[in-house]
């Protein structure tokens, strides 16, 4: 039977989902939600992964879920990159806090996410070498390109973002742009899924990054699983979720596709 527990690490609310058993040490899978979502909205994914023998951690990002404020709804899109960078900065704090409770270890950590959570996942991979593998649903590792696209949309919608603010954002996110720093991936197993009809985070981002990895001399493409799904927009399909669950189990538990 699966259990769902509420935890707070450094005042960050999260859900801990796992099979109710006596096994203390399990592979850990962090799953990060998308913009306007919250930790509890991804319990279907946590269920799929936890059934494979994982301890699944679902944190709330800044201005989401229990961390919402009266201004959160109005500010989320303007603070999109601040939210992502803060989630990346908070990630080791969550791991260390859970380790103190005997619930995690840097020796067996995987990460994944959807949309904003997938974009955060790519940035975390660029930052923390101890992450073992990752799953990205409809994300974009090209921080610079995606930010510029968001600025264009913001300008067209009348959102007043000054040029100086844009330049400051681009400077802050540059070190986390995995497409510009492929060596930081360090051959870690990566599962990428994207619906071909996605207009919110266009499919072209995942396609371009996949081709970049396949052509790179610094990455073994055998460690990449790319799943492009026809007729699907900005929503994870059941098939994609099940495929990801099987893949992460093979990598983290059965030691397939892995390099460690």
TrEMBL record:
Gene3D superfamilies: alpha/beta hydrolase (3.40.50.1820)
Occurrences of domain Peptidase S9 prolyl oligopeptidase catalytic (ranges): 87-237
Family annotation (Pfam families): Peptidase_S9
InterPro entries cross-referenced by the UniProt entry: AB_hydrolase_fold, Peptidase_S9_cat
Protein name in the entry: Fermentation-respiration switch protein FrsA (DUF1100 family)
Species of origin: Shouchella xiaoxiensis
Lineage: Bacteria, Bacillati, Bacillota, Bacilli, Bacillales
